[in-house]
Specification:
2 domains, six-stranded mixed β-sheet, 12 helices, 54% helix, alpha+beta, 434 residues, single chain, five-stranded antiparallel β-sheet
Length: 434
């Protein structure tokens, strides 16, 4: 059992059939005589409650199969049935008369049955107002139930008492037809869910394949990357652009949102990176080129990015970003936040991306990351933030970059309550200058 709309129809159908069965047991003197005395006394009250509320449960079961304006009609019947039912139950509890308002309940039931028979019987209406894989079985069951109900009503009006076996058989036919359609819906939903899961698994494999398979071998650099998506597919992306054994570019990007839409744009970035490889030494040109390619993306999907160019031969680094969290540099026991930001991708065709030039020293440590690192909150609602990152870096300054990344991920998990799931994609790239 899952709490989804495709399964709720079976729950309401079960309650409906159980109420019907309870009424039939209540009508059997033999069955009632076998009950404890205290329960025998409560049978009339139970019967009255069920008689007034079974219509509400029936309409609620149909609501799971309905669409469009029919839903509003069913909701109106449900609320009217509740009002009549609760009033009738209160009257019975105070006066002992169970049928004071029951003619109103019968009238409402007749309106419901007439509406449903019309909708199910007319193909165009069924297509508009019902979500059914196949209406044939339900049509048969509903018509049998309607004919039986009409027969019973006419018999009573003429003073004849129809056998309850016909009522039971009519409801049984309807119950099986309704249950058959409900199971069809559940199985169809399961097949669709399995199909989506398979497609997501394939998308996950594809996305994993577009990420670097390892860190580039660059002299005097040790690079460690960690990538932890929140869902099967993610909007984070990172790429290395190695030019030779001394020079490499490092790109980190973060697409707003999660799931498939964000992952598709992240895949676009992978393709776009290939066009900027010739200007990998110029962060301004790299970000500008990516922005031009991504400027046609949907306006509600924003992309932030950071690009770091490292030249170990000349001990030089260039950095620029597009609305991204700052680059962190650890040098001689001090953490520096380097911001050199332009606009996020897709806002304007030709934004300006300022470039920060730095001299690198042995022992320097750089950290590029997405906002999934700084945004997790603890039980008090405090974000992990730059302060906690600095604490982790400071506590692990003598450890290699791979251990620093592991410690940082562990600290983020400890910061969040154990019951809280990951709220955003996390990407971390730590670079040690040797």
């Amino acid at each position: 059992m899952r709490r989804r709309s495709g399964v709720r129809v079976l729950v309401w159908l079960g309650i409906w059939s159980a109420m019907y069965g309870a009424l039939r047991l209540g009508d059997s003197l033999t069955a009632v005589a076998r009950l404890p005395h205290w329960f025998q006394v409560s049978v009339p009250y139970l019967d009255t409650v069920i008689l007034y509320l079974i219509l509400v449960v029936a309409a609620r079961a149909w609501l799971e199969l309905s669409a469009g304006k029919l839903r509003f009609v069913l909701l109106a019947i449900i609320f009217a049935g509740l009002a009549i039912g609760l009033a009738g139950i209160v009257v019975f509890f105070f006066t002992g008369a169970s049928d004071k308002l029951f003619h109103y309940n019968n009238l409402l039931a007749a309106c419901l049955l007439a509406t449903l028979v019309t909708v199910v019987a007319v193909p165009r209406l069924a297509h508009m107002f019902l979500v059914l894989p196949d209406r044939g079985a339900l049509l048969v069951g509903t018509l049998v139930f309607a004919v039986e109900a009409l027969y019973t009503s006419v018999s009573r009006a003429l003073g004849h008492r129809a056998s309850t076996i016909w009522d039971s058989l009519g409801f049984a036919v309807f119950l099986f037809s309704f249950g058959y359609v409900a199971l069809q819906m559940v199985f169809e939903g399961e097949r669709r869910l399995l199909s989506i899961e398979k497609e997501l698994a394939i998308a996950r494999e594809i996305q994993t394949s577009i990420l670097p398979s390892g860190s580039p071998e660059t002299k005097n650099l040790r690079i460690t990357a960690a990538y932890h998506p929140m869902t099967d597919v993610a909007g984070d992306f990172y790429e290395f652009i190695p030019v030779d054994q001394y020079r490499v570019g490092v790109l980190v990007a973060d697409v707003s949102g999660h799931g498939v839409p964000a992952a598709l744009i992240a895949s676009m970035i992978k393709i776009a990176v290939q066009t900027v490889v010739p200007c990998a030494h110029d962060p301004r040109e790299v970000l500008g080129g990516l922005n031009r390619i991504l400027s046609g993306q949907p306006r509600d999907q924003f992309v932030t990015a950071a690009y770091l160019w490292l030249d170990t031969e000349n001990r030089r680094a260039l950095y620029s970003a597009a609305g991204h969290p700052p680059l962190l540099r650890w040098r001689e026991g001090k953490l520096e936040r380097i911001e050199s930001n332009g606009l996020v991708f897709g806002v304007t065709p030709e934004p300006e991306y300022p470039v920060c030039e730095m001299h690198t020293n042995p022992g320097d440590r750089f950290l590029l990351y997405t906002d999934g690192v700084i945004e997790p909150e603890n039980a008090r609602g405090d974000a992990f933030g730059d302060y906690m990152i600095e604490q982790v870096i400071r506590d692990n300054q003598s450890r290699p970059s791979s251990e620093l990344v592991d410690q940082l991920l562990s600290a983020i998990r400890r910061w969040q309550p154990a019951s809280t799931a990951q709220q955003d994609d996390i990407t971390i790239i730590a670079i040690d200058v040797l």
